[in-house]
């Protein structure tokens, strides 16, 4: 494996890095601060950004920092479904057998949330895939009971088109309840360099493994999108090990970009 050739202890650019190993760059630090406020005092929050920019990583970091004795976290990632299916999924996530009828499903979720004696954080990843009726049901759940014993918050995470959907007049009631908005932008060139160096450091690598010009080229090809950087940098390392090159240069980056059809 290529990481043996470069004396690395693991895969530097794997997709799902443990939260404690993530680089808390300026984007994540700003987002985490806002999400901490949301967990403490907000009602609904929104994370948006292009695909591969790090939204799910920010979610995992946020969840990992929540005190388990204060929050009951429900994470849903299967969202391409009808509204009724989403309600049934939420009930199953609460370890309940879904009842029959929409009203019964609503009641099961609300009663379980009230009995939790902790704040229920309903987190929907890939929320841009939700249909309008499902988003309406989530709003109704959030505001179904004025009883202060119900402590429920909603966090929606998805691609930029999620905000476009929420901007419809029919969903204004939900959007108006969003107290925190976090938009993750692609990495700048300097942030890309820090990202690459950090990923290598996590597995015992040197920040000199990629030439400075190669890091700049990686940024240009990937547009600062971490997922694309991961794919491109990994292929560079694979090709470099095959060619027994201990320094990743721009020629290797260009070759990898052509193979991934980034040019």
Can you describe what's shown?
The chain has 263 residues and is α/β, with parallel strands linked by helices. The chain folds into 2 domains: 2-14 and 187-259; 26-183, 3-Layer(aba) Sandwich (Rossmann fold). The protein contains 12 helices and 5 strands. The chain has helices spanning 2-5, 26-41, 55-64, 83-93, 102-115, 132-142, 161-166, 172-175, 189-202, 212-222, 226-242, 250-259, and strands at residues 44-48, 71-76, 119-124, 152-158, 178-183. A 5-stranded parallel beta sheet has the order 2-3-4-1-5, sandwiched between helices. Strand 3 (119-124), helix 6 and strand 4 (152-158) form a beta-alpha-beta unit. Helix 4 packs across helix 6, helix 10 (212-222) crosses helix 11 (226-242) and helix 11 crosses helix 12. The chain is elongated. The chain starts with a helix and ends with a helix. 35% of the residues are buried. The model has no long low-confidence stretch (mean pLDDT 93).
């Amino acid at each position: 494996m290529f990481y043996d050739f470069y004396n690395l202890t693991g895969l530097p650019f794997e997709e799902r890095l443990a939260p404690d190993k993530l680089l808390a760059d300026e984007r994540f630090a700003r987002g985490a601060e806002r999400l901490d406020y949301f967990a403490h005092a907000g009602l609904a929050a929104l994370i948006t950004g292009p695909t591969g920019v790090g939204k799910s990583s920010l979610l995992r970091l946020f969840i990992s920092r929540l005190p388990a004795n204060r929050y009951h976290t429900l994470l849903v990632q299967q969202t391409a479904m009808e509204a009724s299916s989403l309600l049934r999924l939420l009930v199953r996530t609460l370890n309940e057998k879904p009842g029959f009828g929409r009203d019964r499903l609503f009641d099961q979720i609300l009663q379980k949330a009230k009995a939790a004696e902790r704040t229920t954080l309903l987190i929907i990843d890939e929320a841009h895939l939700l249909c309008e009726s499902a988003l309406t049901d989530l709003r109704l759940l959030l505001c179904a009971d004025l009883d202060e014993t119900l402590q429920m918050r909603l966090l929606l995470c998805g691609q930029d088109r999620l905000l476009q959907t929420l901007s419809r007049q029919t969903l204004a009631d939900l959007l108006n309840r969003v107290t925190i908005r976090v938009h993750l932008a692609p990495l700048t060139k300097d942030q890309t360099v820090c990202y690459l160096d950090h990923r290598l450091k996590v597995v015992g690598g040197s920040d000199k493994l990629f030439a400075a010009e190669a890091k700049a080229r990686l940024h240009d090809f990937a547009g600062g999108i971490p997922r694309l950087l991961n794919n491109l940098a990994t292929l560079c390392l694979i090709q470099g090990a095959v060619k027994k090159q201990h320094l990743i240069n721009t020629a290797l980056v260009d070759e990898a970009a052509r193979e991934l059809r980034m040019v």
